[in-house]
Amino acid sequence: MAAELDHLVVACLSLADARPKLEAALGVTDQGGVHVGRGTHNALWALDGGRLGACYLELIAPDPDQAPPAAGPMPFGLHRADMRARLAGGPRLVAWVARTEAAEPLIAACPEDMGRLLPMQRGELHWRLTVPPDGVAACGGVVPSLIEWPDGVSPAASMPSGGLRLTSFARRPDPAAARALAALGLADVLPEGETGGAPMRAVIEGPGGATVFD
Fold first, then answer.
1. Strands 92-100 and 145-148
2. CATH code at 3-213
3. With contact defined as beta carbons under 8 Å apart, do 214 and 195 qualify?
4. Where does the Glyoxalase-like domain start and stop, copy by copy (predicted)?
């Protein structure tokens, strides 16, 4: 039932607006694509997670060229009015994703509702991701989504490095979140720390300096 950090999820309302700004802030260009049938598209940056291993940063937004999903919510609650209001001021760290080869036992072990595994696709890449009933992860996004990659291999392992490092990843104190992370075996991945009051905070350092996401 082992799980580990796969990627951080930063959401925005417009990828066309936020993507070049984030490229400039990080000092690294990105890659990404379209999530067919889920109503979203993204940009990705490889990260060196230090003790947490290879991972990546995802910038995700509603795709104006797609209709909303025919079944189920849009990932990470991007269809919701309250989430759109939260993102009105700019991109926010709304979730994180843990990779595993055995999502079902972890879903059953977690005291919070993680939702169900839904098929996802970007180009020729396929995976399954837990999506809560309303799309929004529990405890302000501190409880991760779970992802199952084909053959257990994440794209993080082969993404070209741009020199970006995840130097801090922390959550605010929350007993419910602590219980959920302990049940998932992920308490050490996202420990308590300074977040400025946000549910989570991550710091990424690279050619553009340090960039804070919360």
1. parallel
2. 3.10.180.10
3. yes
4. 5-182
